[in-house]
Each structure stands twice: as C-alpha cells, then as structure tokens.
Design goal:
heterodimer; A: about 300 residues; alpha/beta; TIM Barrel; eight-stranded parallel barrel; 8 strands; about 45% helix; B: about 220 residues; 2 domains; four-stranded parallel beta sheet; 9 helices; about 30% helix; binds iron/sulfur cluster
Chain lengths: ~300, ~220
C-alpha cells in the first residue's frame, strides 16, 4: 500500500531529504500580519514552521489559533506546539480535535516550561499529563480514533506527531531513556533544543539513530552580540562557542549600522552553514530546526549557503 | 510529620480583634515536635496576649487535637473556661483547628500556617516529602516522590528544564527529582522500572473532595 502522507513535513522527512523547519513566536497580540509576512519570507526555504505555545510561560495568543491563521494566510505548513502546562487532558483533547477541524497537520507535544518562569507566575500549573503521556494520547487519537478512555471519535484527525529532545542534557542517560519512551509512545519525529556544539549533536544522533526516527537538530542564529550574550548567560546548558562569541563582539564595535548588520549576517552564515554541512555530511540528522525568532531574514541565505 | 509555622503576632492579633477572652489550645503531637504549639509556645503566647491586654481564660496542650476522642477527653475538665471564652486560639495544624471548631463550637482562630507533610532534618529545617496523593507510587521511584519533588509532577523522566541535575524551578538550586530517581534506581539495579512507561494518574477518586476513608466491615 502506498504510504499516505499526512503532511508536507512527513513527506519531506520520509523522502530522506535534509529538512529545514522554522519557528515563529507570536506574542501578546491579536494581529498576526507580522508573523504571516515572516512565514511568507521563509516559505520557500523551510518545509514547515513551529508556532510556539506560550513559550517560557509568557501568556501570548493561542498557539492553535496562530498556527491556523499563519498556515492559512501564508501557505506555509505549521507545526502546532502544544504543552501540558496550561490545559488538562480534557482541554488538550478538545484542542486537538479543533486543530484537526482547522486542517493542522503537525503537532509538537511538549511538557512546557514551569509557570513560575513566565510573566504570570501566580497561575496554577496544570501538568495533568507529561510529554510522553501526551504523545501517547495523540498517537491513539490518530491511529485508533479514540479518546483516552477508548471512546470513538467521529472523523478522528490525522497528525504527524513531534516530540522534543535535549542533546545538551547532563546527565544524558535519563534523557536518552526518555527519548526511547517517546519513540515507544509514538513520536514520528523529534526536534531538539538549541545545539551549538556539533560534537554534542553528533553523539546524540549516534545514540538515537538506532530508533530510526527522524531527529531535526535545533540551531539558533544570533542576530546580534546582545542576543548572544543574553543567550549565553540566561539559557542554562547552552554555551555559545567562544570563537562565535568573540566574532560577534568584534562586529558589535562596527559603528556603521548597515556594515554592522552585514557583518553579523556574514558571521552567522559562516558559522551555521558549516555546522549544517557537517551535520549533513557526518550524521544521521534528518534536518535542521532554525529558531531564528525575530531574525527570519537569515533563513533564506543560510539554507542557500548550506546546500 | 505535619509541618506548621506560627503566623506573625500582628496577624494573630488582627484575627483576635473582636475577641477579648481567649482560650488557647496547643497540640501534643506534630506542633509540639516542630515547636509551634507545644507547652512552651502556648505559655509564651498566653503571656504575649496578656501583655497586649487580652484576657487569657485558660490554656491546654491537647495530646492529639486532630483526634476527636482525645480532644473531648482532654478538654472535658476545662468546659467552663472554654464556655466563658469568646474565642479559641488554636496552635495546631488546620485539621486540628477544624476538629476544635466542630466539637467545641467556639470561634476558632488558627495561630499557625500549615505548610506540608514532611520530615525534620533538624529543628528549623523541614522538607516536604508527601502530598497525600492517595495512590503511593514510591515503589516505582526508588522511594523518592515525584509528586512532591518534581514541580511538574512528571512521571516519565526529567523535563527539558533539567540542567546539571538541577531543576529549572527556583533557579537551578534544587535537585531534579527525576535525576535523583534515576540515580537511586540505577544504584538499586532497578533501571527496568525507570524505563517503564507510566500512564497518567487517575484523578477520578482524588477529585471527589473532601476525601474520606471509611472502613466497611467485611
Ligand atoms: S506518591 Fe508521593 S504524594 Fe503520593 S502518597 Fe506517595 S509519597 Fe505521598
Ligand atoms: S527539572 Fe526535574 S524536578 Fe524540575 S520540573 Fe523538570 S523534571 Fe521536574
């Protein structure tokens, strides 16, 4: 029987083509024009684009609504991120049916950051499910067409199901076991947290290649020295490599705004295109997830430069 | 042990505002051990209340104020003093306060904040260890409770917020429960249990509140 492709992302990953995905982070707004425009800009370079669900526990526009509108108005397929932080299993189930009705094809099932990290720390953290349980729930919805108690769904939705993974985790063994649990629960693909250290990406891919599930490695182009510095200091477990940091620091001293911009872009293109080429050449990575929130313009030249 | 902390004296006075004649009840169990409602604390409270002009008409440390039988027994001889009071100041946990209200039928004021079910490392160093979830899974987790010690109540391993064995909640100061669990089970040669999928918790019984345990004769 010929394989039925649920989404373009699935088609691309199944074909074995090195697949790029992007990420959009709509914030406290009802106006998505800016994000639709960004999606249009990267549309020919990425296969699909994540839409975040209240990232870092900041209260933003619903990721379901944004996923739908961005996909509809830009024509770029979205990956609807759904976390366990704010919704119990009833609400998540109901949103998943809603997503199906709206033509969402991909979901990324995550636990979510803790409420205390965000801009509304007074909120009650829900965490009725964890990511592994959520993946399993979506799997059953898709494969068996039933809810968590086995009750049938009339026209169940079809989703290509994604999971998160963290190659930077230390210790790594519990993370690898969790990866296995997610595979067993039914994850179709993985997108990792940001990795700068190619060696970490390599060893993680080596450990996980036996599962034969596509792993898309997350990268984070750094728009400016300020962004890099913030990232380096505030994202635990992720260190911006020193040579990259130094190059950005040096670029930050260029007084002419346009020249500075060009230099920043050049540094990113150099660093990340060789990172991606190395991934392509030496690992089983299925692709690259470019988390360039607010720096979408880097995606087209970066993808070109990585060919 | 039920860990309690005394409220500030200002807050206690604010709650006692409408009342003049006060009866004090302490607790001979947890609050005695934790030093929030034992003989000494009750005595000191009586002195402080008197010093601000309240009339303390009596005081007693009930052996177990949360046990209705003991509460009745230990207050039997004090009926008149209790009767003559305007309010009872309870130096007990919340369960104690409610048992006192139910059986002594007086306005009852909590002098303590009930914090959690925990262990005492030293006096003044208490750690939460159980949330009375109703279905103990400690046998699967190497005796480390993820319901209490993981802020997300994860059941299948550490979340992405773990960094160098520490938890994202509270600024990477506390141990990630799931790393503790992993290490413990590994030590015990029980990683198979760690690897097993744990389904979502069944809250259906927990959701019928308040919870009751009633023995049915078989
Ligand atoms: S699992 Fe944790 S919260 Fe539940 S009863 Fe056991 S120790 Fe208490
Ligand atoms: S870091 Fe560990 S303890 Fe903290 S929320 Fe995540 S899994 Fe739970």
């Amino acid at each position: 029987m010929p394989e039925v492709f649920i989404s373009e992302l699935m088609r691309s990953l199944k074909s074995g083509k090195f697949t790029f995905t992007g990420e959009l982070e709509p914030e406290k707004t009802t106006n998505l024009t800016r994000y639709v425009e960004a999606a249009k800009k990267i549309k020919d370079y990425v296969v699909a684009c994540n839409v975040t669900d209240n990232p870092q526990s900041f209260a933003y526009i619903s990721s379901l609504v944004a996923s739908y509108i961005i996909q509809r108005d830009s024509g770029l397929e979205t990956i609807y991120q759904i976390t366990c932080r704010d919704r119990n299993r009833i609400a998540i189930f109901s949103d998943l049916l809603g997503a199906g009705a709206l033509g969402i094809k991909n979901v990324l099932a995550l636990t979510g950051d803790h409420t205390t990290l965000g801009d509304t720390p007074q909120a009650k953290p829900v965490f009725d499910l964890d990511s592994v349980q959520l993946i399993k729930m979506v799997r059953r919805i898709v494969d068996e067409g039933v809810d968590m108690n086995g009750r049938p769904i009339e026209s169940p939705p079809k989703f290509f199901i994604g999971a998160g993974a963290n190659p930077n985790a230390n210790p790594i063994e519990p993370e690898l076991i969790k990866f296995e649990k997610k595979v067993n629960a039914g994850a179709d693909f993985f997108q990792t947290q940001v990795v700068f250290d190619i060696e970490k990406a390599k060893s993680f891919l080596k450990e996980t290649s036996k599962y034969n599930v596509p792993v898309i490695i997350g990268i984070f182009p750094l728009k400016s020295y300020g962004v890099a510095d913030y990232f380096d200091k505030n994202v635990p477990g992720v260190k911006v490599p020193k040579d990259l940091m130094d190059a950005l620091a040096k670029a930050s001293e260029i007084s002419d705004k346009n020249l500075r911009r060009l230099k920043y872009d050049e540094i990113n293109l150099n660093y990340f295109s060789s990172f991606i080429k190395e991934l392509k050449k030496t690992t089983s990575a299925a692709g690259c997830h470019i988390m360039s929130v607010g720096y979408e313009e880097i995606i087209p030249p970066l993808v070109e430069a990585s060919r | 042990m039920i860990i309690t902390e005394q409220k500030s004296f200002e807050e206690i006075l604010r709650m006692l505002e409408p009342f003049n004649r006060i009866f004090i009840i302490g607790c001979g169990e947890c609050s005695t051990v934790v030093q929030t409602g034992g003989e000494e604390q009750v005595k000191r409270m009586a002195e402080r209340l008197r010093s601000v002009g309240k009339e303390v008409v009596g005081a007693v440390v009930v052996e177990t104020p949360c046990d209705a039988r003991i509460l009745r027994r230990d207050t039997r001889n004090l009926k008149d003093a209790i009767e003559s009071s305007d309010a009872i100041l309870c130096m007990t946990c919340g369960a104690g306060v409610q048992d006192i209200v139910e059986h002594l039928k007086k306005p009852s004021i909590p002098a303590l904040d009930t914090k959690f079910l925990g262990i005492i490392e030293h006096i003044g160093e208490f750690y939460e260890r159980c949330r009375a979830c109703g279905e103990c899974i400690l046998y699967e987790t190497g005796g480390i409770c993820p319901i209490v010690r993981c802020p997300k109540g994860m059941l299948n391993g550490p979340c992405g917020g773990m960094y160098e064995g520490k938890c994202e909640v509270g600024g990477y100061k506390r141990d990630c429960a799931w790393i503790l669990i992993y290490n413990r089970l590994k030590e015990l040669g029980m990683l198979d249990i760690y690897r097993a999928y744990r389904p979502p918790r069944d809250n259906s019984r927990l959701n019928v509140q308040p919870r009751e345990v009633i023995w049915v004769k078989t």
